[in-house]
Amino acid sequence: MIEIKNLYKDFGKKKVLKGIDLTINKGDKIAIIGPSGCGKSTLLRCINMLEKPTKGEVIFNGINLCDKDVELNKIRQKMGMVFQQFNLFSHLSVIDNITLAPIKLGLMSKSKAEKEALRLLKLIDLSDKKNEFPNNLSGGQKQRVAIVRSLILNPDIILFDEPTSALDPEMVKEVTEVMKKIADDGMTMVVVSHEMSFVKEFASRVLFMDDGNIIEQGSSNDIFKHPKSERLKEFLSKIGN
Q: What confidence tier does 86 reach under pLDDT thresholds 50, 70, 90?
C-alpha cells in the first residue's frame, strides 16, 4: 500500500528524518513510539505530504507522491488524518462537520452523506450529539467526531498523530476504544502514540524511533518484552515499561 524509501526531511540545518525505509501493508496496525522530537509526527506529515520530504520517495498505491504532477488533494481523500487537536469547525454542528468534505468534494449527495454520518455516529455512541456544536462536547467526544470525519471519506488508511495527547486521562479510553473498533473492522492505521498500554493492545507492528531513524521494529511482544537495542531498553526503562 505505502512504500517509503530513503526518506529525509530537513528544516533548515536541522535534520529531522535521516533516511527512513518503511513498508505499510493493507491491514497493518502500526504504532510509532519514541522520545519527543525524534521525528514521529514529521514522518506522518511526510506520508501525506503535509510536509514535503527533502529527499526520498513515498509511494502510495503505486503513485510516487513526491512527483510534481501528483494531485495531492485527490490522494488525501484516500488517506485520512487525525491530529492532536480536533480541528472541528466551531460554527458547524457535529453532523455538518462530518458531512462537509464529502458534499463539497462531490463524493456524496447531502442526503447520502447525512445517512452515512448518522451510521458512523451510532458506531461511536454519539448519535444524540448530531446537532450539537463542538463547544458543547468534551475533548473525547470531539476527537471521536474527528475520527468519524476521516472515516466518512472511506479512506484506504488513517494516520493518527498522538490523538489522545490533548485529552484528560479519563477521556483517553473512550477514544482508544473507538480506534480499536476501527482496527477490528480492518482499517489500515498508523498511530503515533505515547499511550503504551494502548499500543500493546492495538499494534500488529511497533516502530521505535530516535534521532530521525527507525531504531527497532517488531511485534508488541518483541518491542516491549524483548528489546534488542540499548537505546530502546533505555527508553522503556524511563517510561516505566
A: confident
